[in-house]
Design goal:
The protein is mainly beta and 113 residues long. It has a 6-stranded mixed beta sheet, with no helix packed on it. The termini are far apart. The chain is built from no helices and 10 strands.
């Protein structure tokens, strides 16, 4: 299992970013996938989940209504569209394949003016 996140960066409060997670080494189309994040000095926090069976989605209350998780099975890629970003969204964001528990190396998101 290999997962590679990209798309992080520095953005002003209220701005948007789209993260990508490119997957290989497993059957992506049927795998449940999630995004999590870890801010400095804090525990890792689950952010969003997307099912590999019925495409159902769940979100942490802290991001509901602002973040959207999606996937493109033809491209073996999962996305996290993040809108209305806040300074408290600053963290390293990780994607994870739920069956194996494998996680990528993460991508840094910094929200600051």
């Amino acid at each position: 299992v290999q997962l590679v996140e990209s798309g992080g960066g520095l953005v002003q409060p209220g701005g948007s970013l789209r993260l990508s997670c490119t997957a290989s080494g497993f059957t992506f189309s049927t795998s449940g996938m999630s995004w999590s994040r870890q801010a400095p000095g804090k525990q890792r926090e689950w952010v969003a989940f997307i099912s590999g069976t019925d495409n159902s989605k769940n979100y942490a209350d802290s991001v509901k209504g602002r973040f959207t998780i999606s996937r493109n099975n033809a491209k073996n890629t999962m996305y996290l569209q993040m809108n209305s970003l806040k300074p408290e969204d600053t963290a390293v964001y990780y994607c994870q394949e739920l069956r194996s528990g494998s996680r990528g190396q993460g991508t840094q998101v910094t929200v600051s003016s």
